[in-house]
C-alpha cells in the first residue's frame, strides 16, 4: 500500500504544541513516557499470550531496548510487545480518544507554569517525543500479524502511514534528535534517566551500543513484589509516576500484603493533585490488576469502587484465574473480596491521617472529598466509616469541621444537624436563610458539591440527630435555647413585630396577588435582617437540587415555594399597616417585588424580568418623589 498522508486531529495538534512549549524544562520525561508505553505493550501481550502462546513463541523474553546512534543522531526505543496495526496506529498516534480532552484543552491558560501542572494530570505520553525530536518514526507490527507499518511525523499537523516489510513484532520508535539534544545519545544520561524514572517497571530496559552486548539499565523487579524496607521513598515516587502517568507527588503511598481468605499485594497511591478526568461521566477506576506479575487490565470495573477512582497503583493476586476474560473477571467472587479488602484498608489509612495529621487530611479533602462523598450515596455498608471521614466548611469560622466537631457545639434543645446547599460558599454563607440560626448561635454546614444534595437526602441521621436543610419546611428554631441575654432581646423583638391581625391581612393580600407563583405565604422565625426568603415545603424537591437538575436539562418545571416574611422587618410592618385598608396596586407591586427579591437572593431570575424592572422603577420613584407629589 502506498504511503498515505493524514492530518492529526485538531486536539492532537494543540496538545503537541503545548507539550513541546511548556514541558521543556522537564524534557527527559519523554523517555519515561516511551518506556512506559513499551512496558504497557509488553504487559498486554504477555496477558494475551496466556491463551495464545504462539504469539510470542519466536521471541518470548519481553524487553525494551534503547539504541543511540551518534552518527545518525537518532535514539531508538524498541519493545517486543503487542504492537499496532494500521487502525491502531491512526487511532492511537493521530487522535486523542480519551474522554475529557476537550475539557482539558479548555482549561489551559497559555501560562506555562499553570499549564504544566494540568498537563501533568493529563499525561502527555507519546507526543512528548517531539520535545527532543524533529522527526519521529514508528515501525510497528501487531503480534500475530504478517505485515508491519511505518508511521512518521515532524509533529506539525500531519503524519504518514505506509506498509513496512520485515518489521519485528512490537514497536520501534526512532527519534531524530533536534540540534542540541545530543545528550540523549550519551550512556550516562540514558542510564540516569532510566534509573530515575523507570527503575522498577517489571520489564528490563536494555542499552545497545554498536556491536557491544546489551546492558540492562534498570532493576526490572516489579517494585510491589519487593519488601517494603528495601524500597526508598524515591523509588515509590518514581513508580507512582510510572503507573499513574502523573507528575505530582503521591499524597499517600500504601504498600501491603493481605493474607488470609485471599492473598494479594497492593501498592496504592493517592495523588496530591486532581487527575484531569476525575469528573468524567465514565467514573473509571485506574488501579492495575496483575495476577502473579502478569498484567491483566487497568480497566477492571469491580476492583475499586467509583468513589475511590482517584486511587492509582497496582494490585497483584495469585488467587485470581489468569485465563479468564476481563468481563468474566468482573464477576469473580475473589475480586469482590479483594475490593472489600482494598476499600477497608484505604478507609483505615484515611482515618489515621484524618486523626493524626488533620492539616494533611484537609488538603486531601479539598482535592478528593467531593468524590469520596459519592460513597455516602452509593455504599450503604460503609456509610458509618465514611461519615467519620467527612469534613465540612460551616458557619463556625474557617477551616474544615467533622460531624463530631459539629455535635460538640450543638445547642441545648437542638435536634437536627442543619445544612444549606448551593453552588458557592460565599454566597450561601450570606443567605438570609441562615439569619435565625446565626442569631441563636446554631452552626450550619455549608455544602457546595453537587453530590451533597444526594447523600444528605440518603442519610437520615448523624447519631440521634436528623439532617435538616435550612431551606426546607419550618425552621424549628423555637426549641433551641438561646443564651440568657438573648432571651430578653427576643421579647423586645416580639414587641416590635407587626400586630398579628395586620400581618394576617398582608398575608391575605400577598397570597391573592401571587396566586400559584407561591405555595404559601407565612411569617418566618428564621429571618432577623431580611424582609423575605423562599423555602421549600417539607417533602418538596430541594431548591438547589431542582436548579442543578434544570441546569442539566433533567427537569423543566419549577416547583412553587413558600414565601416567608419577616414580621419584625420595617418594610413588612409598613406593608402590614397599609394592608389594613385592603389590597391596592402599590401593595401588589410590592408583593411581586418581594417574591422576585427572594428569588434573586436564591440565585433565580425574577419571574418576569421586564415587569420586575418596571415595578422596581415605580417603587424607587415613590422613594425619591417630593412629599405630596
Ligand atoms: N510502544 C507501544 N506499543 C503499542 N501501543 C502503543 C505504544 N505506544 C503507544 N501506543 C498506543 O498509543 C496510545 C497512546 O499513547 P500515549 O502515550 O500518547 O498515551 P497513553 O499511554 O494512552 O496515556 P498517557 O498519556 O497517560 O501516557 C496508547 O494508549 C497505546 O494504545
Features:
629 residues, alpha+beta, Heat Shock Protein 90, Ribosomal Protein S5, domain 2, Rossmann fold, 4 domains, 9-stranded mixed beta sheet, 5-stranded mixed beta sheet, 22 helices, 39% helix, elongated, binds adenosine-5'-triphosphate, ATP binding, ATP-dependent protein folding chaperone
The CATH architecture of the largest domain: 2-Layer Sandwich
What is the top-level CATH class of the largest domain?
Alpha Beta
CATH superfamily of the largest domain: Histidine kinase-like ATPase, C-terminal domain
Radius of gyration of CA atoms, rounded to a whole number: 32 Å
Walk across the major sheet and give the strand order.
1-6-5-4-7-3-2-8-9
How helical, in percent, are the residues? 25-40%
Report the strand count.
22
| Strand fraction | 15-25%
CATH topology of the largest domain: Heat Shock Protein 90
Class by SSE composition? alpha+beta
- What is the makeup of the main sheet? 9 strands, mixed
Average pLDDT, to the nearest integer? 89
Coarse morphology = elongated
Uncertain segments of ≥5 residues (pLDDT<50)? none
How far apart lie the N and C ends? 91 Å
Structurally, the number of domains stands at 4
Question: Any ligands, ions or cofactors bound here, and which?
Answer: adenosine-5'-triphosphate
Helix segment count? 22
What do you see in this structure?
The structure is a single chain. This protein is of the alpha+beta class. The protein folds into four domains: 4-221, Histidine kinase-like ATPase, C-terminal domain (Heat Shock Protein 90), CATH 3.30.565; 225-358, Ribosomal Protein S5, domain 2 (2-Layer Sandwich); 391-484, Rossmann fold (3-Layer(aba) Sandwich); 494-536 and 554-624, Four Helix Bundle (Hemerythrin (Met), subunit A), CATH 1.20.120. 39% of the residues lie in helices and 19% in strands. It is built from 22 helices and 22 strands. The strands form four sheets. The protein has a nine-stranded mixed sheet with strand order 1-6-5-4-7-3-2-8-9, with helices on one face. A five-stranded mixed sheet has the order 10-11-14-12-13, sandwiched between helices. The chain has a five-stranded mixed sheet with strand order 15-17-16-19-18. Strand 2 and strand 3 form a beta hairpin. Helix 1 crosses helix 5, helix 18 (500-514) packs across helix 20 and helix 18 crosses helix 21 (585-602). It is elongated, with a radius of gyration of 32 Å. The protein starts with a strand and ends in a 5-residue tail after the last helix. The mean pLDDT is 89. Residues 33, 37-38, 41, 79, 81-84, 92-93, 123-127, 171, 245 line the site of adenosine-5'-triphosphate. GO terms for molecular function: ATP binding; ATP hydrolysis activity; ATP-dependent protein folding chaperone; unfolded protein binding.
